[in-house]
Amino acid sequence: MTVIDPATDLPSADRFTDVWRGVPSVNNVKLTGPDGATPTWLRGPNPNGGFQADARFGTLQEQALGALTAHAAVQVNPEQSFLDDLAAFQETLFSSPALRSAVSAAAMDPLPPDATLAPLALEGKAVFIRSCMQCHGGPGLSTPLTSQPPFTDAAAMPRYHNVNAGCPRPVDTVTPPRFVFPACPAAIARNARTYEFTRADGTVFRRTTTDPGRALLSGIDVGSAAQTDFPRFDNPSLHGISRTAPYFHNNSATDLEQVLDHYAAFFNQVKTVNALSNILATTTPGVWDRPFTPEERPALLAFLNEL
């Protein structure tokens, strides 16, 4: 994968590119990272999940070392004992005492108990389980679930996803449009770059985005939407999400209302392509029933604020 120089329309001699990503919360980091569970991605690094937006690190120690060397630009690498101590401390950080207690008791239900929820949020919990949890499952609410109907095959649900939060975003070719994504903030859209991929058969393909995701690690765009690394990311944890704005890997949504706006458009886009055979669209083959409805939106928002 190479970066295209906009002045010459040729591959740049510079083999590096800058991408701008949001800083995730370190709360609940113990519940994220590699889990050894399905689904397993086609290639590394960390095909069963990892740390950072693109899952590039397999341990908290690796993540800390990366931050110290690449971000803080330390001149001497820290001792392994220092990294181990830092990782041990991070594993004590949780977004709520209840979550910390559940993890300590090894009796982990990742969702708030029904008895703690107001009626509207309780309605939203059912919507969340149907609409969101197939991608945000597991103890960390960050692992895709291959056990949810109608698909129990690990290949049916990928480990890493592209939810079209990067810029530019898809635009429908039909008038009136069947889906309309919220506009990219100008401060993010201006960072778009064109990347050139050379595939195994020698064909060359270009894609423009503000962030190639895991393709920055592998350099792979295989041409198949189901297998490409471009521009896929690891699913973030949703624990404590009401306190971790802004959202998405590029901070392009400033609040949860904008997150739901984005996913309403995302589900509508899914509906335009093989919707009724897509795990993102259906719990029952042939039925469009997984996306949240406009009427369900207030309840879902109320529940997200309780996570």
What is the compact description of this entry?
With 307 residues, the chain is mainly alpha-helical.
3D architecture notes:
- The protein contains 8 helices and 4 strands; from the N terminus they run ββαααααββααα.
- It has 307 residues and is mainly alpha-helical.
- The protein has one domain: Orthogonal Bundle (Cytochrome Bc1 Complex, Chain D, domain 2).
- Strands 2-1-3-4 form a 4-stranded antiparallel β-sheet, with no helix packed on it.
- Helix 1 (60-71) packs across helix 2 (80-90) and helix 4 packs across helix 8 (297-304).
- The longest helix has 17 residues, at 256-272.
- The two termini are 39 Å apart.
Draw up the topology in text.
Elements: E1 2-5, E2 10-11, H1 60-71, H2 80-90, H3 97-104, H4 119-131, H5 186-189, E3 193-198, E4 204-209, H6 215-218, H7 256-272, H8 297-304
Helix pairs in contact: 1-2, 4-8
Q: Please tally the helical runs, counting DSSP H or I stretches of 4 or more residues.
A: 8
The largest sheet, given as strand count, sense and whether it forms a barrel, is: 4 strands, antiparallel
Tell me the CATH superfamily.
Cytochrome c-like domain
Give me the strand/helix succession: EEHHHHHEEHHH
| Shape call | globular
- Mean pLDDT across all residues, rounded? 91
Count structural domains. 1
Query: What's the architecture, going by CATH?
Result: Orthogonal Bundle
CATH class: Mainly Alpha
Low-confidence stretches: none
- Indicate the structural class: mainly alpha
Report the strand count: 4
Kindly report the CATH topology: Cytochrome Bc1 Complex, Chain D, domain 2
